[in-house]
UniProtKB/TrEMBL annotation:
Residues 7-325 form the FAD/NAD(P)-binding domain. Its cofactor is FAD. It comes from the Bacteria. Keywords: FAD, Flavoprotein, NAD. Belongs to the class-I pyridine nucleotide-disulfide oxidoreductase family. This is NAD(P)/FAD-dependent oxidoreductase. Residues 359-465 form the Pyridine nucleotide-disulphide oxidoreductase dimerisation domain. The keyword NAD applies.
């Protein structure tokens, strides 16, 4: 079967980014087709954010109750792992996308199932399930929102070993007895936390000397301390040099000997899903990240018709940031098609300014890590005159009430010339919900003189804001 269809916009990939971009372009008056080769909803819904957070939330709730005399006795110390896994399955919609397909229909977006490839300017060829091709042409634009897959290191034996990537780590039906995790980034620490709580004996193998290297150093230190206390065997400076499976997995750790485990998760970063996307037909390098300007236009492609949004452009590999780009770029595509004027000033409606200076992220470990904007090191590297102010969150009345022995740390990075907050990091229980206050301060460039008037309620953990301001004033 083959056919040609014309739409104003063709979107490749129906993850959270593609869905939002298609929705905003449709709302702006365009006809939109979206091409998806797997499940509508993308990585986030089925093998990333949703199932991982569903695995992490029950152990977090249990730990919180265990830290409170009176509640501790009521919850005991066990976790019902089967119930956690069943709830995870529900949050992954049992790996079915009917709900999201219905949403696409309600939004008036045409779904084309199959693997899509660019075929020159404003043309997409889709290999449809069951054979055959469908050709889509775009009157105005094509948006690549194809996301990423797990990046595996090039190790002897890896292709025959049956290793876990983030997909297996978020969808496994039961906890392996022994789980080795390779990597020290967000996926590694979240999944080590989850599977350790679900009953696996976890060994975390970190090539570097610290966890979460892109965040403030105290974040990785506090998470490392807590992982060790929860029984994770955390090894820094450990590199896997080869591996094999003989019933169990045998990891060669070079001079550090070998490690045996039932499964091994490689949480070693992401690679863009652009290897088989026809990028060579539009003058871009297959397999590479697609660099874009602040309106989403691909750099190096003439004619102003190719956009890329979400993970695939490498600006910020986070669902909320992909959705933000989807909202901004989808509206830009509709505005350009209609000849409407754009608002290109920093923080204008047509540019994704926040990607550069105000990206929030929560790492759902115990303790949680919530951060936004620049770390002290990043801010210093930009040439700004900055100063960090720090405070122990456990000294705030709200935190002491929240949990006995509350451990946590907060830092605000202050721009000394503008007297605004350019970055903030909170580590501790329940800090995730505190983060948006910092995001508003950073994105809004709220002067410190005004933040004094943003009074945190007593006794909440958010009083840490007051303590940070006091630390700044001295
Ligand atoms: C374990 C894990 C946990 C995470 N947790 C969080 C979290 O808590 N919070 C957070 O913000 N982020 C989290 N992330 C990151 C988040 O998953 C990504 O940032 C997000 O999924 C990116 O969305 P996207 O739409 O750009 O890409 P994706 O979600 O990867 O979607 C891309 C879609 O394109 C489709 N596709 C690819 N190529 C083609 C093609 N040629 N033709 C047709 N379709 C194609 C794919 O099938 C997929 O459906 C996590 C990531 C991992 C791995
Ligand atoms: N809660 C969240 O927001 C959340 C959760 C999970 C993932 N994510 C997103 O997904 C992205 C990917 O996460 P990730 O943890 O896979 O990547 P990452 O880039 O954060 O971390 C990768 C880690 O693997 C290590 N590594 C790389 N190659 C290696 C090798 N050959 N041997 C040993 N170690 C190696 C790196 O040093 C690093 O510590 C992140 O950028 C993050 O934004 C977000």
């Amino acid at each position: 079967m083959s056919g040609t269809d014309e739409f104003d916009l063709v979107v490749l990939g129906a993850g959270p980014t593609g869905e939002n971009l298609a929705d905003r372009a449709r709302a702006g008056g365009l006809s939109v087709a979206i091409v998806e080769r797997e499940l509508v909803g993308g990585e986030c819904s089925y093998w990333a954010c949703m199932p991982s957070k569903a695995l992490l939330r029950p152990p977090a709730a249990l730990r919180e109750a265990q830290r409170l005399p009176g509640a501790r006795a009521a919850v005991g110390d066990g976790l019902d792992a089967d119930a956690v896994l069943r709830r995870r399955d529900d949050f992954a919609s049992l790996w079915r996308d009917d709900g999201q397909v219905a949403w696409l229909e309600s939004a008036g977006i045409t779904l084309v199932r199959g693997h899509g490839r660019l075929d020159g300017e404003r043309r997409v060829v889709v290999d449809v399930p069951g054979g055959g091709r469908r050709i889509l042409t775009a009157r105005h634009a094509v948006a690549v929102c194809t996301g990423t897959g797990a990046a595996l290191p090039d190790l002897p034996g890896i292709e025959h070993t049956g290793v876990w990537t983030s997909r297996e780590a978020t969808s496994a039906p039961e906890a392996p007895g022994r789980l080795a995790v390779v990597g020290g980034g967000v996926v590694a620490v979240e999944m080590a936390t989850a599977w350790s709580a679900l009953g696996s004996r976890v060994t975390l193998l970190v090539r570097e000397q610290a966890l979460l290297p892109r965040l403030e150093p105290f974040a990785g230190q506090l998470v490392a301390e807590a992982l060790r206390e929860s029984g994770v065997d955390l090894r820094f400076g450990a590199s896997v040099t080869g591996l094999a499976r003989d019933g169990e997995v045998v990891l060669d750790l070079g001079e550090h000997g070998e490690l045996r485990a039932d499964e091994v998760l490689f949480a070693t970063g992401r690679r863009p899903a652009t290897g088989d996307l026809g990028l060579e037909t539009v003058g871009l390098e297959p397999g590479g990240w697609i660099e874009v300007d602040d309106t989403g236009l691909a750099v190096g492609v003439a004619g102003g018709w190719l956009y890329a949004a979400g993970d695939v452009n490498r600006r910020a590999l986070l669902t909320h940031q992909g959705k933000y780009q989807g909202r901004v770029f989808g509206a830009v595509i509709a505005d350009r098609a209609a000849g409407r004027e754009l608002d290109l000033a920093p923080w204008g409606r047509s540019v994704a300014t926040a990607d550069r200076t105000a990206v929030p992220q929560v790492v759902f470990t115990d303790p949680e890590v919530a951060s936004v904007g620049l770390t002290l090191a990043e801010a210093t590297a930009t040439g700004r005159r900055v100063r960090a102010v720090d405070y122990r969150i456990g000294n705030v009345a709200g935190a002491a009430l929240y949990a006995d022995g509350y451990r946590g740390q907060a830092r605000a990075v202050i721009d000394l010339d503008r007297e605004t907050v350019v970055g903030a990091t909170f580590v501790g229980s329940a800090v995730a919900e505190l983060l948006h206050s910092a995001t508003v301060a950073v994105a809004g460039e709220v002067p410190l003189s005004r933040l004094w008037h943003a009074v945190p309620a007593y006794p909440t953990i958010s009083e840490v804001w007051l303590r940070l301001l006091e630390a700044w004033r001295g």
